[in-house]
Amino acid sequence: MPTVTIYNQNREKLGELSLSDAVFGAEVREHLFYALVRYQLAKRRQGTHSTKTRSEVAGGGKKPWKQKGTGRARQGTIRAPQWRGGGVVFGPKPRDYGFKLNKKVRATALCGALSRRVQESALVVLDDLKLPSIKTKQVVELMSRFELGEALVVISGQDDVLARSARNLQNVTVLPVEGLNVYDVLNHKHLVMTRGAIEAVTARLGGA
After folding, report:
1. Which strand ranges, in their side-by-side order, compose the sheet holding 172-176?
2. Cα 70 versus chain centre, distance
3. CA atoms within 13 A on the CB side of 153
4. What is this structure's pTM?
């Protein structure tokens, strides 16, 4: 059973916390990371690209020249695909890029990502994380105090003060525990979680 040290915001040790083997000590399966990242990025795509077919391009109602006798190839409309300004053949149309991935696979991949951060000693657990006011400087000082270059900060519930304080920092992302996902865990070198977030994730992933 993995064990981590609990700190306060001043990096003072408050004790130790035993983590669930099922969530933070799971087997790391690289191929599931690949599948989950593809799944998440595909669902983020807007898919609003669109081109016009020959029936949608304006103009071209008149036959360019008569069918026979000109010595040229027969043409029905100047909006045919072979004409400049004509329609596009098999061009992109609005579509949904999302695809199905089983809930159990998603949960297994997330447990693997969290376990990877524990194995790398890249998980920092705080007893709580509250800022007195909206100031980016306070988040910068916190990251410096724990010697973190870039980090994903996961908290229990919504905290507008913390989120707004960190939103101008490219290397820090703040997420509520409900938004914890594989892509963001893998995209940050360090993971910072509050005790409440640890408990919520453990209950959510069935490691209670």
Report:
1. 13-18, 3-7, 123-126, 190-194, 151-155, 172-176
2. 60
3. 28
4. 0.83
State pLDDT tens for residues 119-130: 999 999 999 999
pLDDT tens, residue by residue, 93-150: 999 999 999 999 999 999 999 999 999 999 999 999 999 999 999 999 999 999 998 9
CA 50 to chain centre: 25
Query: Considering only CA atoms, which of 125, 197, 195 is closest in space to residue 155?
Result: 197
Strand positions, DSSP E, 47-188: 123-126, 151-155, 172-176
User: What residue spans define the domains of the chain?
Assistant: 3-46+100-204, 51-91
> Contact at 8 Å (CB) between 12 and 28?
no
**What fold does the segment set 3-46+100-204 form as a domain?**
Ribosomal Protein L4; Chain: A; (3.40.1370)
* Pairing, β 190-194 against β 151-155: parallel
Phi, then psi, of 95 in degrees rounded to 5? -155, 165
**Distance between alpha carbon 173 and the CA centroid of its chain, in Å?**
11
| Phi, psi (deg, nearest 5) at residue 80 | -70, 155
